[in-house]
Automatic annotation (TrEMBL):
Signal peptide: 1-18
Organism: Pedobacter frigiditerrae
Keyword vocabulary terms for this entry: Signal
Taxonomy, superkingdom: Bacteria
Residue ranges occupied by any Fibronectin type-III domain in the UniProt entry: 324-416
UniProt entry tagged with the keyword Signal: yes
Pfam families: fn3 (PF00041)
Protein name, entry field: Fibronectin type III domain-containing protein
Length: 506
């Protein structure tokens, strides 16, 4: 009976140890976060002939590898536990390594990872800024993230709109707080966002999106070959575009081969076809006159390319043999009587019997004969009643049974009628930048806004702002000094307004 009891006890003990060995073989070393400490647990396998073991425990983290238990003697058949209480002020991700020694020989090595922080910890980007380095395409991004030890990785993303698709720019080391992005467009918004992923889950936490509008010079390439050819009553200028930095193009023209080229076309916006043409119409052309054309490209930074190669053509239109007057202008002696004056070709005056003046009021679409606007060939002016800003004039030469094409259009501009655009400015200082805001008109189309600052002698341009904006943050502000600003509006014809009321900021 005694031997039977002993045999049963041995069988029962063997069963327990077998179960324990099975558990240990699955996970012998664990490290668990509990109340601020890491509880390390090791379940050894009994080594034949040994009742005790010697272990060394190491911990690896951002501060390097440290020996935290040295030559610790433990029982060979009992689970060993201890609390690492040194991490309460050093949360993070750590690796624990346990080495079992027999005499001086390491017979077993086990390792495990521990997350030394509470499960409800979340990272927050308390600071996230984007600054355009002056006169460059570098966007300097900087941030500060609370509980950054939680993060396994950070991704930086960029979009061209707040709610648009964000593209991956770079994977960032969680220890980094700075990144420099390079963009290829000026005066256009770029939005940035940080996505943060932790060690202990697949949840991604995103920062708030921030925006920057870089301003730096983009000089487009010189436009390639252009062609000018006469088609019916027009001269057609055409060219191809392979200019990635161009947002649009201008055609410039001059008469003959001397003098300056003048812009003759509106901005011709870039399109997907890459093929462009512009028609110089009959109203601005004279028979048997030679014309020269060039094309320039303009970028989003409003910088322009060099002139293209010149294309030269002589305009021929046989039915119109006499030339129209040139150099139309308004002359007044007393600000009450206005005369439209023009120059005539004295060498061919005998072919001309008189002149007819045409008027198109601002907002009208066609020229109509001016009342009392016809003269004989010896008079090169007419009096204009009720002259208004924006009135346009043309003059034709009249011969026997023929007339010239219309002269080049002259549009009268009254400098006292340039009072358009925002009138009043508001300002506040944030982060050493002066933020200036104004009220936009919903009905008025503008090309740009320009901010000027007084330098003691005159107002100088410090910022050019796109028409969709109603504010600007200027670095020209000097704290503690008197800063004087004025905002001018550029209309779609390229005319600048007289400006807003003066803004003074100390």
């Amino acid at each position: 009976m005694k031997y039977l009891i002993i045999s049963c006890f041995l069988l029962f003990s063997t069963s327990i140890f077998a179960q324990q060995a099975a558990i240990v073989s699955n996970q012998k070393l664990t490290a668990t976060y509990e109340g601020g400490d890491i509880i390390v647990s090791y379940n050894p396998i009994k080594i034949v002939g040994l009742d005790s073991l010697i272990i060394n425990v190491y911990r690896k983290g951002n501060d390097g590898e440290k020996l935290i238990r040295a030559n610790k003697k433990i029982a060979a058949n009992k689970i060993f536990k201890f609390a690492d209480t040194t991490l309460r002020t050093q949360p993070g991700v750590y690796q624990y390594i346990l080495k079992v020694k027999r005499d001086t020989i390491t017979v077993e090595t086990e390792s495990t990872w521990a997350y030394a922080f509470a499960p409800d910890v979340r990272p927050i980007a308390t600071v996230f800024k984007a600054v355009n380095a002056k006169n460059t395409n570098n966007i300097i991004l900087s941030w500060k993230i609370t509980d950054s030890y939680w993060m396994k990785n950070i991704t930086l993303l960029r979009s061209r709109s707040m709610d648009g698709k964000y593209e991956l720019i770079s994977d960032i080391n969680p220890q980094d707080t700075l990144y420099i992005d390079k963009v290829n467009d000026a005066n256009e918004p770029f939005f940035y966002r940080l996505d943060m992923k932790g060690f202990n889950g697949d949840v991604v936490y995103s920062s708030a999106s921030i925006v920057v509008i870089p301003q730096f010079p983009i000089v487009p390439y010189k436009v390639g070959p252009i062609k000018a050819e006469q088609k019916n009553k027009s001269i057609v200028v055409s060219w191809n575009n392979d200019n990635p930095s161009a947002r649009g193009f201008y055609v410039k023209k001059r008469i003959g081969n001397a003098g300056e080229f003048e812009i003759s076309s509106p901005l011709i916006f870039k399109n997907k076809t890459g093929q462009y043409l512009w028609k110089d119409t009959l109203s601005s052309l004279k028979p048997r006159e030679m014309y020269q054309y060039v094309v320039i490209a303009e970028s989003n930074s409003f910088d322009v390319s060099k002139h293209s190669d010149t294309s030269t053509i002589t305009y021929n239109y046989g039915n119109l043999a006499i030339s129209p007057p040139t150099d139309l202008r308004i002359i007044t002696a007393n600000d009450t009587t206005y005369n439209l004056v023009w120059s005539i070709d004295s060498l061919r005056q005998q072919e001309i019997s008189g002149y007819q003046v045409y008027l198109k009021r601002k907002g009208e679409t066609i020229f109509k004969p001016l009342k009392n606007g016809n003269t004989n060939n010896s008079i090169n002016y007419v009096m204009v009643e009720n002259l208004k800003d924006g009135d346009s004039f043309q003059v034709k030469s009249i011969g026997i049974n023929k007339e010239s094409i219309p002269s080049m259009t002259f549009t009268y501009t009254n400098p006292f009628e340039l009072n358009f655009g925002p009138r009043y400015l508001k300002a506040a200082v944030y982060d050493n930048l002066l933020n200036i805001k104004w009220l936009k008109s919903e009905n008025q189309k503008v090309r740009a806004y320009k901010l000027y600052k007084w330098n003691g002698k005159t107002f100088v341009l410090v910022e050019t702002i796109t028409p969709d904006k109603d504010n600007v943050a200027t670095r020209s502000y000097l704290a503690g000094q008197l800063n004087i600003y004025k905002l001018r509006t550029v209309n779609m014809n390229g005319v600048e307004s007289s400006g807003s009321e003066v803004l003074q900021v100390n």
